[in-house]
């Protein structure tokens, strides 16, 4: 199997079929009924062109059907329904799986795993890099009645986000920096991060598209729809339609 | 109460001495103050750790809280809107049914198994103390350990349970990930955890039954079966009642086992009122404190109803004897 041939969903599924035919396990990810499940599903969701404002679109159904098909065909284990990103990684670390969906924070563990590995960005439905959700740490300065503290807050934020400090923080936490300067430094020290730097460039905030505080409610319905479908209680269409009507309230 | 009575006795005791009796009916002001002083720790403890949290939870369930108003403390009063929302929620009926099934099945099997084991160990054979100690292990383990272990054992792909079933040509069963089995799985785990409690309490109840009764029954030719149903079971009734009541209160509020094993899923198939309350209050980045507190209060009311029922039954039993 040649990994460079995996460019879109069709070629990925074809690769999984080959892996299964060879008697190995295909792919593991986290589809647990919490925010982690939404976090791992979103690259596929967005990679289909679906929008969080319309959970029951044809594109969204295609994304959920992709995962559902993998489970039905035995390319992905049933345990993904319970997997956190950590347990999903543990499954991958057994060495039986060809693919696993995870982030930079597992890179150190991959080096320790003792088998060869490669890193590819999550493909979009018809190629390209799918937008992954951004995460990590954010600096928030709440509006205060007493504005006298703002200069000090400004100093603290400037200090925390300065390139040198950001590199130190991102390296410690195994994150990708948010600015080109930081990303450039990270890529030069660890070339393996290059794939993720590209992914971050394509990434998208979960509360973007003017969703803001509406996102948690949508996300809860989204992971619910994933769980309902993968556990076999509803079809992708029915699950997403129910999710959309609940999230729209 | 006790303090006041002792004081009165001491006062009457001193009536025999020289002091005039007229001032002795009521304790003097400093003594009354001392009495309240003795009461203060328990009263403030009750108010601080029982009455106030209950009041807060009730207040929480009657207001429209958001994260912002939780910090600012200016949540508008919304009457019974949270309760109406909870009752109208499509999760309510399944959660209630799951809670009842979970509690009833757990109690029934835990009690039956605990009683059988208690009778068995009451025969005091060799090694019975050691074996009994082994049965206490589930009780000693932290719940997160036992629940995680159950989750591993019941894992669809790598769990030991499916591996054993595979030898017999059965399965694989998706214990935790199929809507048909998830509730059964958490019930099984909860039964395992609850047996030691039933065993210990019922065993100590058995110790209180005089051995002479069994001897007399044996002399009269009663079979072992008859001795159990005519002596052990009726005499154990008060102990059984309190075991079941405590078990009921424990089981109604079981949350950790279910949350760790299934998160109440998939698709709410193992959601109980307790896990639902948690999910509403803490499971999402945008918490719904009001409805969460409303579900919690419903649980308190259910437990209270059974507590009152127990008191009534106990009173009737006392009147009968």
Automatic annotation (TrEMBL), chain B:
Membrane topology: Multi-pass membrane protein
Subcellular locations according to the entry: Cell membrane
Annotated InterPro entries: MetI-like, MetI-like_sf
Domain ABC transmembrane type-1: 96-310
Alphabetized SUPFAM superfamilies for the sequence: MetI-like
Domain of life of the organism encoding this protein: Bacteria
Disordered: annotated segments: 1-26
Lyase found in the keyword field: no
CDD domains linked: TM_PBP2 (cd06261)
Gene Ontology cellular component annotations, sorted alphabetically: plasma membrane
Family of the protein in this entry: Belongs to the binding-protein-dependent transport system permease family.
Protein name (database record): Sugar ABC transporter permease
Species: Streptacidiphilus pinicola
């Amino acid at each position: 199997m040649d990994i460079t041939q995996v460019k879109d969903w069709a070629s990925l599924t074809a690769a999984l079929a080959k892996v299964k035919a060879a008697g190995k396990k295909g792919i593991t990810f986290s589809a647990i009924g919490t925010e982690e499940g939404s976090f791992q599903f979103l690259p596929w969701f967005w990679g289909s062109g679906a929008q969080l404002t319309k959970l029951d679109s044809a594109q969204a159904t295609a994304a959920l059907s992709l995962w559902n098909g993998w489970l039905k065909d035995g390319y992905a284990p049933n345990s993904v329904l319970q997997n956190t990103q950590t347990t999903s990684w543990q499954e991958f670390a057994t060495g039986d799986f060809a693919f696993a969906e995870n982030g930079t924070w597992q890179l150190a563990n991959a080096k320790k795993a003792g088998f060869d590995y490669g890193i590819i960005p999550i493909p979009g439905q018809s190629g390209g890099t799918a937008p992954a959700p951004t995460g990590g740490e954010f600096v928030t300065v709440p509006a205060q009645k007493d504005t006298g503290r703002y200069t000090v807050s400004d100093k603290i934020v400037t200090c925390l986000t300065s390139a040198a400090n950001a590199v130190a923080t991102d390296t410690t936490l195994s994150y990708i920096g948010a600015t080109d300067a930081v990303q450039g430094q990270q890529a030069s020290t660890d070339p393996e991060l290059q794939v993720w730097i590209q992914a971050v460039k394509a990434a998208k905030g979960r509360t973007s598209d003017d969703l803001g505080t509406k996102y948690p409610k949508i996300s809860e319905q989204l992971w619910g729809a994933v769980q309902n479908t993968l556990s076999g209680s509803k079809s992708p269409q029915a699950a997403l339609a129910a999710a959309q009507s609940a999230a729209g309230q | 109460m006790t303090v006041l009575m002792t004081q009165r006795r001491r006062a009457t005791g001193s009536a025999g001495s020289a002091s005039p009796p007229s001032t002795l009916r009521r304790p003097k002001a400093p003594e009354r103050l001392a009495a309240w002083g003795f009461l203060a720790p328990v009263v403030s403890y009750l108010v601080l750790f029982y009455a106030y949290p209950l009041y807060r939870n009730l207040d929480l369930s009657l207001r429209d809280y958001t994260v912002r108003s939780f910090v600012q403390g200016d949540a508008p009063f919304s009457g019974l809107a949270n309760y109406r929302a909870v009752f109208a929620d499509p999760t309510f009926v399944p959660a209630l049914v799951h809670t009842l099934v979970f509690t009833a099945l757990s109690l029934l099997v835990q009690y039956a198994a605990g009683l059988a084991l208690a009778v068995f160990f009451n025969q005091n054979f060799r090694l019975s103390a050691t074996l009994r100690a082994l049965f206490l292990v589930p009780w000693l383990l932290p719940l997160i350990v036992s629940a995680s272990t159950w989750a591993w054992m019941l894992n669809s792909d790598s769990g030991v349970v499916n591996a054993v079933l595979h030898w017999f040509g059965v399965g694989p069963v998706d214990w935790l990930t199929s809507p048909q089995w998830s509730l059964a799985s958490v019930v099984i785990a909860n039964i395992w955890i609850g047996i030691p409690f039933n065993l210990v309490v019922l065993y100590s109840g058995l110790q209180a039954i005089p051995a002479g009764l069994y001897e007399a029954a044996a002399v009269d030719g009663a079979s072992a079966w008859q001795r159990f149903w005519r002596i052990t079971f009726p005499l154990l009734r008060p102990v059984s009642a309190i075991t079941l009541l405590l078990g009921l209160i424990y089981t109604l509020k079981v949350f950790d086992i279910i949350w760790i094993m299934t998160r109440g899923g998939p698709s709410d198939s193992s959601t109980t009122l307790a896990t639902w309350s948690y999910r509403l209050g803490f499971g999402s980045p945008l918490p719904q404190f009001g409805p969460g507190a409303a579900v919690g209060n419903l649980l308190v009311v259910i437990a209270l109803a059974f507590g009152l029922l127990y008191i009534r039954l106990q009173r009737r039993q006392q009147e009968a004897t």
